[in-house]
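Good morning C.,

I know you're traveling, so I'll keep this short. The sequence:
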Amino acid sequence: MASTHTCFEIVHFAFLPDVTLERQTEAMNALGVWAATQPGFLSRQSFHDPQQSRWTDVVEWNSLDQATAAMERSQREPALASVMVLIDPATLHAGHFEKRI
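The tokens, ready to paste straight into the viewer:
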């Protein structure tokens, strides 16, 4: 049975050390543009920790199924390939959380 709760996708990560903050910001903007075109997208906020040079991305989706499907599509999306190679995979932690209260 499909979930009827909205879902928050929370992703923590860092870019590779040689990626400038300007390029990181461009990459984050590209991710946001793509996400906004996906079924079930509701909102997105991105946060940068300048002391640790890490990002937290919080995306709200209409459902867990739509969030999961969008994450899977993002890994195969040619338009995002140039962004994904900039992210340090060892730092990537993601989760999906359904809104219950």
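Safe travels,
E.
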